[in-house]
Amino acid sequence: MSAGAAFEVSDLCFAYEGSSRLALDGVSFAVAPGVLYTVIGPNGSGKSTLLKLLLGALQPAQGRVVYAGRPLPGWSRRDLARQIGVVPQGGEIMFPVTVREIVEMGRYPHLGLLGRPGRLDHAAVDEALERCDIVGLADRPLSRLSGGERQRALVARALAQQPATLVLDEPTISLDIRHEMQIFELLAELTRQDSVTVVLVTHHLNLAARYADRMLLLDGGAPAAEGPPNQVLRREAVEQVYGWPVAVGAHPGPGRDAGAPQILPLAGTDPSGEPVDGGAS
């Protein structure tokens, strides 16, 4: 076991009922505390399934997940909820609620059965609203928000929980450039200043490369590469996993992300040099 790991995943395998194919096959990695760890890969590569296994929503067919030195089955749901904040992909809220009320739900794991929010709870909610740039939306019904605004409200709910770890599945989906960058900057700030561990699934390879400390690249449920971005996002690996020709350059900066690998999809030829049919899948 890796000393002091937030998450440690060992030889994880999982298959959905009725499927002859493993959704995850032999996945192993460790996430150190206070780092930003991204999981990348094509659609159907097992990214969201992996997050569900990390959270105990699915049970592995083989292998195990350890969180903070304790195997996942040893955690009660309430204790785990106090430790880990979750931002699901496209989370839908089916009942009428304001933005502030949805963010306040992040405090529930810290309240007793009949507990009422106190000063510290209200302060945590206010800070989460501000960090996600939705103070002006606090009293608006969630049903009247755009997709991007709703996504930021869900991130704020997780932040209000003040967790040791954040697990996010495509948190910047539907966001414009400004708010997309704000979320990544916020996640990086949480790791650097608040020592929060962040595990993030994203399709944004270039943003992941600029902000992640380490990455896991999945291919058909199996790990294709794991490590720092400059070791994972190699041209050969990206072309093999995504099935498309790319060039890999360095981010020009300025800033701390200068030199991070950046992926540029190419047009006209496949990795073997043959012409590509623009309509091919």
UniProtKB/TrEMBL annotation:
Cross-referenced SMART domains: AAA
Keyword annotations from UniProtKB, A to Z: ATP-binding, Nucleotide-binding, Translocase, Transport
Residues of the ABC transporter domain: 7-245
Keyword Aminoacyl-tRNA synthetase: no
Coiled-coil ranges (or none): none
Pfam families: ABC_tran
UniProt entry tagged with the keyword Nucleotide-binding: yes
SUPFAM superfamilies per the UniProt record, alphabetical: P-loop containing nucleoside triphosphate hydrolases
Start and end residues of each stretch annotated as Disordered: 252-281
Molecular function GO terms recorded: ATP binding; ATP hydrolysis activity
Cited PANTHER family: HEMIN IMPORT ATP-BINDING PROTEIN HMUV
Function comment: Part of the ABC transporter complex HmuTUV involved in hemin import. Responsible for energy coupling to the transport system.
Protein name: ABC transporter ATP-binding protein
Organism per entry: Candidatus Kutchimonas denitrificans
